[in-house]
């Protein structure tokens, strides 16, 4: 069963049977919004990038993105860069997290999306971030980017350790920047 998340909502990543999730996929999907022009509707390719920043005690210690596809410890893996989005029914980019392999000092993983080509989210439609149980393909949670905006990035969600295991929180914080490095001032307050 999928939970449609709202900004700031947190869900436990514990399975219904009481077990814990062992492997999750954070998927990102989008399409370029059609624009009206002299010759009818047209779209412009938009390159959104998914990134995962790994934190230990509020300090960034590693990042997974299109130029560094696997975390140094191997627990987080990016499936590759999609330069245009909207090419299929599923995720355009995905980041896989083996929760059992995440080192114990890593307490938060923050997922971001940014427009590498600099278009604002006003030019993006049908954008979503979703969490999937990678062991069985079941979608657990979905956060939809609604309404666009004059910003070029979003701090989408984070998974963080809690007393009961891992928890996901939908953040939905708008930001501006073309890379995850540009987003660090916006990420730090949500840790």
UniProtKB/TrEMBL annotation:
Classification via InterPro entries: Stress/Tellurium_Resist, TerD
Source species, domain of life: Bacteria
Pfam families attached to this UniProt entry: TerD
Residue ranges constituting the TerD domain according to the UniProt record: 1-178
Name listed for the protein in its UniProt record: Export associated protein
Gene source species: Streptomyces griseoviridis
């Amino acid at each position: 069963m999928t939970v449609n998340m709202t900004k700031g909502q947190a869900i436990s990543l514990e399975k219904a049977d009481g077990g814990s999730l062992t492997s999750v996929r954070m998927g990102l999907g989008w399409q370029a919004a059609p624009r009206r022009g002299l010759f009818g509707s047209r779209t412009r390719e938009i390159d959104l990038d998914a990134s995962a920043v790994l934190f230990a005690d509020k300090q960034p210690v590693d990042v997974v993105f299109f130029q560094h596809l696997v975390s140094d410890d191997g627990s987080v893996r990016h499936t590759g860069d999609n330069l245009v989005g909207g090419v299929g029914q599923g995720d355009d980019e995905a980041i896989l997290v083996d929760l059992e392999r995440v080192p114990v000092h890593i307490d938060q993983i923050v997922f971001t999306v940014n427009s590498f080509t600099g278009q604002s989210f006003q030019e993006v439609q049908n954008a979503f971030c979703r969490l999937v149980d990678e062991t069985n393909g079941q979608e657990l949670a979905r956060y939809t980017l609604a309404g666009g905006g004059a910003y070029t990035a979003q701090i989408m969600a984070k998974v963080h350790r809690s007393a009961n295991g891992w928890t996901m929180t939908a953040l939905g914080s708008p930001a501006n920047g073309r890379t995850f490095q540009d987003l660090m001032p916006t990420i730090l307050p949500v840790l």
